[in-house]
Amino acid sequence: MNKLELIQALKNNNNLTTDEAKSVVNIFFNEISEALAKDERVEIRGLCSLYVKKYKSYTGKNPKTGKPTEVKSKKLPFFKPGKELKERVDNK
């Protein structure tokens, strides 16, 4: 499922216009993105939790030349599935 299919499902199941459904989906994703940008954890019970994982800098190796190179520290979003989601996926 992609974003457009989600908008369509929301529209069909809740008697919304396409613009209303699109607005709801955009607000939902924008709020999640903003929370993660502020290093806040997002938890959707039964589905998942999203949080920012911090990685320290380290010395890596350039795969082409084999020479050592410095990799900067970084923060990346991390998805952790909830118990109900894991069970639902495993049982299908």
In brief:
The protein is built from three helices and five strands; from the N terminus they run H-H-E-E-E-E-E-H. The protein is of the alpha+beta class and 92 residues long.
Q: What name goes with the CATH superfamily of the largest domain?
A: IHF-like DNA-binding proteins
Quick one: overall form?
elongated
CATH architecture of the largest domain: Irregular
Overall pLDDT = 95
Q: Structural class of the secondary elements?
A: alpha+beta
Quick one: how many beta strands?
5
Residue runs with pLDDT of under 50 for 5 or more positions: none
- H/E element order: HHEEEEEH
Strand order of the largest sheet: 1-2-5
Tally of contiguous helical segments? 3
Quaternary structure of the protein? single chain
Q: Largest sheet, described in full? A: 3 strands, antiparallel
Task: Classify the fold: give the CATH topology of the largest domain.
Answer: HU Protein, Chain A
| CATH class (first level) name of the largest domain | Few Secondary Structures
The helix fraction, in percent, is: 40-55%
Cα-to-Cα separation, first versus last residue: 17 Å
Report strand %.
25-35%
Number of discrete domains: 2
* Radius of gyration, in angstroms, nearest whole number: 19 Å
Description:
By secondary structure, this protein is of the alpha+beta class. The chain folds into two domains: 1-38; 39-92, IHF-like DNA-binding proteins (HU Protein, Chain A, Irregular), CATH 4.10.520. The protein contains three helices and five strands. Strands 1-2-5 form a three-stranded antiparallel β-sheet. It has a two-stranded antiparallel ribbon with strand order 3-4. Strand 1 (42-44) and strand 2 (48-55) form a beta hairpin. The longest helix has 20 residues, at 18-37. The chain is elongated and about 60 Å long. The two termini are 17 Å apart.
